[in-house]
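Human: Here is a favour to ask of a fellow structure person. Comparing notes only helps if you start from a blank page. Give me a protein, with the fold worked out from its sequence. Please set it down just below, with no commentary around it:

Assistant:
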Amino acid sequence: PVQWNYFKQQLSAVGTPTSVVSSFAINITTDATSAVTGSGILLDDVRVISDKNTTGGVWGEGSGVWTIYNTGVNKVYRQNSSCNLTIPQLMLKTTYRDFVYSAKITPVSAAGIRYSALVFKYKSSNGSYYMFNYNDAGAYELLKYTGATTTTVTSLTIAPLAAPYWLKVVNSGTSIMCYSSTNGTAWGAAVLTATDTAGTQGNIGIFSGSDSAGDKIAYFDEVKVLPVPENLTATNADNQVQLVFLSTAYSGEVSLYNIYRSTTPADPAPALIGTCSGTSYNDVTAVNGTKYYYKVTAVVVKGIGSEETDIALSNEVVGEPHPGVNITNNPFTPNSANPAFNKATFAVYNSANDRVEMYVYKPNGTLVAVVTPENSTFSWSASMSTFTWDGKTNSGKALEGGFYIWQIKVGGVVAGKGTIVLAK
């Protein structure tokens, strides 16, 4: 169920709450017994639907007039004036990139119904947006509005849907997937799909209007916007995998993120291994040499309770923890009489036995040595490449004592970096 926010406000005592309501209707009543006109003011028609939708996002009125309308069964969103394609009407002020957006739609005007649609990826900079619509002719339409022109991206004609019906849009990266349902739970396969190469984020909203019938053509209910974690990446380390992802959820919308892991790719039932409140997580239970597959979901706070985004919507990344780079003799003493201490030994993870190179810099960034298989002895065993450095430049000159910065590349990719102390 959708939870609505109600309020009472004494306008004369406190003033008009313009931060919440942009317009309102007043009903002037008359006290017949005392012949007083205007003895009460009833704020009964809030034109900005609600301060928050089911995920807590703030609505803003673009064009037309919207109200909370009591159908006698429950309260719904209803548009009370003609549509304006230039400015989609009821919009969330928050922008989203990857999301699941759905609503229950009940047409209430049989003639001339044209738009009862979900608007998404609205960009105020150029006024462009997408719109997923089901029209009275029995057609699903994915429309795009750009520069005062509406074009059909893709469409599908079906048998007419009985009211009410549910529409849903899933945006993931550059993919747009549109669904419909007769009960709000069984969605089936996408009825329309498209690719948006821009892949940018935008506002989400509702559009309702008709070419001929005008206003009040449909009720919108059970509106949900669920932001999906995106761009999940994994960085391997010694017996751990560091996960980082992005989220376009605003503060307070997501209570936590769930981290799932499997040793099988595309596992439909991966194990929940932990949670985090931010957009990073360190899996310290990972074991070197094991390949893991990770996904992340968001637990989104609604008006009542919370809802977790589908695991299948998150991108999957592979993590394979490894020892990284281990150094023996740090600090080391090149002029030591004991051969065990006059060289530093580096062991770097190298599962494919790729070429290994180490670059040594002074703290000011000056390159002083490059250690390669051509000028040093390298060995490879158990996925580890091992080599030494004697504290000299490539020309054989002994370096001064102090801190030096090293960077190791395996197969041309940086595998590790750090500092080493050369003692004299």
